[in-house]
Amino acid sequence: MPYPAPYVPDPTLPPAWIVDIDGTLAHMSDRSPYHWHRVGEDSLSPAVMAAVTAFAASPEKPAIVLVSGRDGVCRPETEQWLAEHRVPYTELHMRTPGDSRKDSIVKAELFDRFVRHRYRVVAVLDDRDQVVRMWRRMGLVCFQVAEGDF
Predict the structure, then answer these.
(1) Predicted TM-score of the model (pTM)
(2) pLDDT exceeding 90 applies to what percent of the chain?
C-alpha cells in the first residue's frame, strides 16, 4: 500500500480541522527557521486566526489539531506563543526533537499516530507545497494559505 495510506473519514468520529503553525498560523520575522528559541517572536496571521476561531466556535465544535514541523525542543515556547495569542486548539503535535526528515514525512506520521483513527478530518490549513501535496494525496481537502515552494 502506498504511504501515506489514503484517508477514509469515519462519520462516527468527532470532527477536526488540522492546522499548521509556521507559514500558516505564525509568520517568522527575521529569525532563521531553525532558531527554535526565537519562535516567540513570530507574528500571528490575522486571517488564519480568524478562520481557526470561527472553526472552533462553529456548532459542530470541531477539534483544532495543530500539526507542526517545528522541532519538539521548542514546545514550551510554542505553547506560550499559542497562549499569548489566544489560539483555540485541542491538541498540539510536533516533530520529535532532532528529527530532520522532510516535513511531509513527519506530518504523515503524526497524522497516522494522533489523528487518523481519532477524528473525522474536515480539512487542513497548510502552506508548504510538499505537505499540501501529501495531504491531498491522502484524500484530504487542504487549503493552501500561502506560497510554499521551499
Answers:
(1) 0.94
(2) 87
